[in-house]
Predict the 3D structure of the following.
Amino acid sequence: MGKTHDRIDGRLRDFIESQPVFFAATAPLDGDGTVNLSPKGLTGSFAVVDERTVAYLDFAGSTAETVAHLRENGRITLMWCAFQGPPNIVRIHGRGEPVFRDDARWDELMAHFPAIDPTPHGLRAIILVSADLIRDSCGYGVPFMTYDEDRDLHRKRFAREDDASLSAYFAKKEHISTSIDGLPGLPLPLPPLPHPGR
């Protein structure tokens, strides 16, 4: 049976922090718009900020749908599944915002990701999510799967880029500065990362 939680703590926090992958779902206000669902991983790129707030790092990718949808309406659902151990699914329904690299909160938020280099290659934004509803459910239909390790392809690909070349790369790609449905996406050119070379 599903259960509603008041806060992200104890076993619930332990569960979501231990999962190697989670999923983020967003949608535009337009009922004919494109619903987006993205897998999120990379060890150390998710953090519980407080008992009602989580954050994750938004790295370079094929599109910027999550950023665009959050800029328009803020609605987001995050989901974690137990692929090992007892069955469980946790969802956080809430309001999200992309925190860009020139935001005054950047350094404070990055402190929640101590395993991540303070100037990681390909980092576009921090997605900050405030929980409106926190629920878990049985997860009986989720299969067992094993986690081997993170892929190193993303790090290797974007280690070649600096701020200027990353902005140029994004400018050439579809659906980065605007979403599939034409909503404003990632602001370009990217503001430089604070404390380069630190």
Q: What stands out?
A: The mean pLDDT is 93. The radius of gyration is 17 Å. The longest strand covers residues 123-137.
